[in-house]
Batch of 4 targets.
Target 1
Amino acid sequence: MDKRETMEINLKQQKVISDPLRSRIIALLYEEPMTPKQTADKVGKNPGTIYYHIQQLYKHDILEIDHVKTEKGIVEKYYRAKAMVYKNTEKEAPANHVGGSQSHMYLSDKLLKELNEEVQELFFKYAHLSYKETAEQKAYEVDFRIKEYEDEERGE
């Protein structure tokens, strides 16, 4: 697995990226710089909607302009994500919190099932490894949950 670039963000930036569509845009633009139109085509959404989201991400310093092309007098800006992993330095973790992560994403039923199965396998793997380990250990509660995203605009 390749190491993902991490970027420290503030609370305002955290709010801007905490939407599954914006997370998908960030992931796509981390892999390859694209124009808003190319991004819209990839995610199957209206170019105007994607342009708005890209502008919000750019305004809040999550995206940057990778390069600009002029084709027959039309200026095309190619955006790229500055990172793939974001760490909010302003958010305080509870005293006993030692690690974890969170992600917003779109998943089909098939991918959701696969994700659940793989996480269960990881839990089993590390529980099994802990029985074999001879180093001193501490007790931890490892929590995994998937919650359906509630879109504020649709009132879901």
Target 2
Amino acid sequence: MCYLGIDLGTSGLRALLLSEGGKVIGAAEQSYTSQHPQSGWSEQDPAKWTEALDAAVHELRERFPAFADLKGIGVAGHMHGATLLDETGAVIRPCILWNDTRSHAEARQLDEMRGVRSLSGNIVFPGFTAPKLLWVKRHEPENFARIAKVLLPAAYLNFYLTGDMIADRSDSAGTSWLDVAARDWSKSLLDAGEMRLDQMPRLVDGSQAAGTLSPALARSWGVSADVTVAGGAGDNAAAACGIGALNDGDAFLSLGTSGVLLAARTTCRPDPDSALHTFCHAVPDRWYQMGVMLSATDSLNWLASITGSTAPALTGALGDDLRPPGNTLFLPYLSGERTPHNDADIRGSFLGLGVGTGVTDMTQAVLEGVAFGLRDSLEAFKANGSSLSRLLAIGGGAQSTYWLKLIATALNVTLERPQDGEFGAAMGAARLAVMAHTGAVSEDVLTKPEIAEIIQPVSELKDQHDAAYETFKAAYPMVKAAQRSNKK
């Protein structure tokens, strides 16, 4: 038997094949692009997702004979995207993605409505789903009138796989339509967003069997007719499943396109005023909180693109020994920011550039800016009464030893880097498929990885990084005021 975990990302799809014993058999990846028809807009055609999945499955079938004994599938996806379907199940318009900020006015309107924060457990951010639908109603009324169902990206792949409209609770918690404590759709929140309950998919837990692979796909893929499709998860909940973060005290840092500090919770303790997200976990009776910055490795990749370099080459030039903070300051707000500012309009900035500033100085500034942005999230956790002193480090950026030493020092936390392997959303999704097919309990499947390296703060540089962080915090209101002035 084997299980398929699918990670539907913003820039590509990863499909991971897992053995019955939890070992990786193989993986396949397909890339695609987003469209940005206007500034602040970000959209994708859902057909790209299904095409990428079909291509990845074809590759897995060709390379790994074990695929023929597929028993379960789990899908993890980027959260908040609005995929609009008409009564025939056809897509009405391109999906509006999580990093689309056009609905900032609608988000503000919803966020100011009585009871919305307390029920949803969160600030209504422009990237969330509910404000997107209000924007569609106001600006594309002909499309809004056709909506029969709204599906998140992972739920759309579930629909493609099963023919049923199913969503998991962890993903749905990022819509501003879900009562996060009750783990169910809220009529009050739907009314506030001018939506109806019949336009929502059926809710399941991520580890629950949600459906069966459609007969047509089963024949096309050359597998049996009884393949279980799990409820799946939002990408960060799936990543938590991939590294076994289930209980209070389990926390990780994800250094990917966005930067995330996530802590698992056995109780629901929302704190929306801090701009921390409080969402349902992918397993029953669990929640998680996270601080999110929108441009983590995205900031480094941007610098690499404009300098004609690569991210590994830029970080490699710094070596492995942590340096004192540089004289150049970088604010990593290339796409706005969530925690703690909830600011869709702010943009990135370099401060302190001089004639002697080189690419290495700018690289150091970018890494420091991201580290300080992550510290903003840590400070929000502290204000919430949470102490995060030990974090598992995952994501592409965690391959840089220099960056991890910097983050450990700037946050004054111990970082644990796992042994080489799969610990991302695809692994978590495959584990959810195992649970859905076998009925196994989470403690037996969602295990923690072996640790390869422990990275401690560089104590002799801690005070200097604390001072640099204070400078970083003070720069935000000044840059915000300057950018507001420039728009006038």
Target 3
Amino acid sequence: MPEAKMVALVSGSSRGIGAATARELAARGYHVIVNYLSNSAAAKEVVKAIETDGGSAQDIQADVCDEEQVVRLVEQVKAEHGRIDVLVCNANTVHPPFEQLDTLTWETFAAKVTGELTAAFFLTQQTLKIMRTRRTGRIVYVSSIDADSAAGSVAQSTAKAALNTFSRHVAGHAGLFGITVNTVAPGSVRTEASAKVNTPELQQYLAERSLFGRQMEPSDLGYAIAQIADLKFAAATGQIITIDAGMDVVGQQISPVGQRGPEED
């Protein structure tokens, strides 16, 4: 592989948003590190799809909540490629519990919050060592609009809000070295992870309030993340960027009976 080829590390990229992001970055010329925890077959399928499309990728297993494994992961990428240009922190380390506060245990709550931050902390700390030396790079965290919501899981919302704050502190430090750090906060995306709560009623509700007229797909987020991670895009850092297909503003324009306004000629 040519030494000059850009390298992107995407955690949790064997499926869903991570897989879509990996494919989009590969299409833009990056050699993509497809990180996964346990689903080796799915990760290899992502690599195969990328290579079939003419891109370059490899799969590397690592638990991104384990510091030693993150060190090994980053050192392997550095040894083989000499660089990491883009880091996308996407891994869903702990599935959010949906119990209400009165039935939620502290252990379950803490596991979600800690898991979210542990992966981001270790990956950021190790990757920044490489990016600072090169004085360039892009870091993108995958958060959620749940960070600003009191309607869903208290553990999920708290974890994502903490991630948003963490990302802004990282941006302040990394900016001194020419590195941008931004966070994508998606609305509802149709993935395997969201399948349990993704009822037909919810899909209809989201479709009515979407610029797409449908629920978002992983590819919608993959494209957005790749745009923000582009090395030519240096106009924003420390930002929490909502990607919700217009749900926030479009929903405000729908009448109480759930109908859009009249079509314009």
Target 4
Amino acid sequence: MKIIDLEPGDARLADELLPVLRELRPHLTEDLFREVYEKGYAQGLRFSAAYDGEGVCVGAAGWRIIDNTSQIRQLYVDDLVTAEAARSTGVGRRLLGYLEERAREAGCRHLNLDSGTHRTDAHRFYLRERMDIVAFNFDKALDLD
């Protein structure tokens, strides 16, 4: 397996990574994804793609390194998804390991992510990977009228 970071404008983002990412984020169109990445890149957003031995994208991770008062420096994972056909083959573990290496290289004290309450299979995976449940995430949708 090969994991590479993809910069904004790379054709592989739309052609290879986005179809995998849409398994987690089905609302993303190609245009919306491009817009989010172009704006998010300036805020530290990065995307990494995992490729199998045949050169097929089988996993995607969106992440950023942030500094805050609660965890000082952390690598925050926005998105972590394995293509359905490749689940339970070690892709998620490899992507998470890759992100952990990136976090250590950047001097991060934590690797952190949020996971929807309905994603129980993902929760089992994170717990197997020795991640702890340390907080609740609260959300309020805002009208943009």
